Amino acid sequence: MSHIVIQDALYNAKSVRQIDHLAIQQMAIPSIVLMKRAGRAAFDELIDAWGQPSTITVFCGSGNNAGDGYIVAALAAEKGFTVRVIELATADKLSADAALARDYSAKAGVSFQGFKTDIDLFDGVIVDALLGTGFQPTVDAPIREPYAQAIHCINNAALPILSIDLPSGLCSDTGSAADAAVKADITVTFVAAKQGMFTGRGPALCGEIIYHSLNIDEALFEQQPSSSQLMNLDDLLEAYPDRDADAYKNQFGHTMVVGGDLGFGGAVVMAAESALKIGSGLVSAATRPQHIAAILARQPEIMASGIISGQELQPLLDKPTVLIVGPGLGRSPWSEQLLQKAVATGLPMVMDADALNIIAEGRVVPKPDGSNWVMTPHPAEAARLLNISVAEVQADRFSAVRALQKKFNAVVLLKGAGTLIASADSDQVMVCPYGNPSMATAGMGDLLSGIIGGLLAQGLEPSQAAQLGCCLHSAAADLAVEERGARGLTATDITAYLRGILNGADL
């Protein structure tokens, strides 16, 4: 897992630079001192991870990130390690502090050499100090040479890699990355945790994340608000309702799943089943008649109704307190009728899958008011809802989730590596630190919809239900992988682990 960070607050590059500035001005810490602290922290983590590497090769660019690398090299040389610095900028192109750090490194006996594409990287550990938080990848401005070639050499060396502050080529603000980006084993990040490390390409590139504040006074962070926040499952579980000894099922809501066009009945079952397992008092399903037998055979507690039109759905909508619309819904006239009837109830809803795709077309629900909705799009669905490309969504997931929230006035959960949640009641985007690549499989979204719907039914506010549901879903998947392995995970595999967490299983 790549989520070892001692800070829940996440920052963009501008805010990090401001905190850095405040430390220099208000704490009277010279910038070169901060650089030396960063280099020391990175060196210590390198030794802690890999002991006594035969060679330490440090790739340095031109900015302050390079300065941190020069400090690492100096410390390694002072300890008697074989160390070399590969320079991609001449000494006269270095930032002022990086130049001072280079001088320190030279006095320690470090050897410097310019980058060549045929560089020999056969042993030891690589330190990536090429690009820092100032790098902002765009389609029109990819990584310039020779940096792209250097990154290619680093990744192809088959050696352990430690990135300083963040992997070169990763955008600290968005989580997007250039075509050429370092894939680190460990990233040691300084001053504040950067939000782009935890979503998009960030989790794939950062490896293990280790945070060091560089002993900056915590009061300075209060002067610079964070832009996003890592969610904490233990804290969120406090919102899960306790049950009195005389509790009865109607106290915990009635969740109805609407969907399951022909050939997609499994999605309804998974959503309904997870709503039950999360504690919804009653769960029903409105779906095609052809799916009823299978639903009852698998989970007889689900009150399943076969419907062939929106008119048949109408009388069923008097009973539920929460609707989940979209799992297996399809995009047929039948699907559109069901969505139209569901929206007209005004009930709290989870909107997922094809419900989102139909809404994106703007015909069936021309003026949606999602004030009591939780919308759970994946990047392709988000792109349709915003009328942009998937690439544009992934280029800045934070902007995309905020735009969706504003457009629909809903709580929006943007799925993917580092799931994001935006709501009207907070300026901060919430970031999920749980989950793993094995979750990239059919049915996971249906399961998540059911979990969130079941939590809504039990009285949680939409933002609470989205956050707790997301973290429960991902943490359960982490436990399943830990116990049974990463390969072959299915959506229904994690249900037992979901109940385990709710009943006190260790995370």
Sum this structure up briefly.
39% of the residues lie in helices and 15% in strands. It is built from 19 helices and 19 strands.
Account of the protein in words:
- This protein is of the alpha/beta class and 507 residues long.
- It has two domains: 9-227, YjeF N-terminal domain (Rossmann fold, 3-Layer(aba) Sandwich); 233-239 and 250-502, Ribokinase (UDP-N-acetylmuramoyl-L-alanine:D-glutamate ligase, 3-Layer(aba) Sandwich), CATH 3.40.1190.20.
- It contains 19 helices and 19 strands.
- It has a twelve-stranded mixed sheet, with helices on both faces. Strands 4-3-2-5-6-7-9 form a seven-stranded parallel sheet, sandwiched between helices.
- Helix 2 (31-50) packs across helix 3 (64-78) and helix 13 runs parallel beside helix 14.
- The longest helix is centred in the C-terminal third of the chain and has 23 residues, at 462-484.
- The protein is elongated.
- The model is unreliable at 1-6 (pLDDT under 50).
Key words describing this protein structure:
seven-stranded parallel sheet, Rossmann fold, UDP-N-acetylmuramoyl-L-alanine:D-glutamate ligase, 19 helices, single chain, 507 residues, 2 domains, disordered N terminus, twelve-stranded mixed sheet
β-strand percent reads: 5-15%
Instruction: State the domain count.
Output: 2
- Poorly predicted runs of 5 or more residues: 1-6
Give the rounded overall mean pLDDT. Answer: 95
Main β-sheet description: 12 strands, mixed
**The CATH C-level class name of the largest domain:** Alpha Beta
Helix content: 25-40%
The main sheet orders its strands as: 8-1-10-19-18-17-16-15-14-11-12-13
By DSSP, the count of extended strands is: 19
User: First CA to last CA: what distance?
Assistant: 12 Å
Q: Supply the CATH architecture of the largest domain.
A: 3-Layer(aba) Sandwich
Shape: elongated
User: How many individual helices?
Assistant: 19
Q: Can you say what the CATH homologous superfamily of the largest domain is?
A: Ribokinase
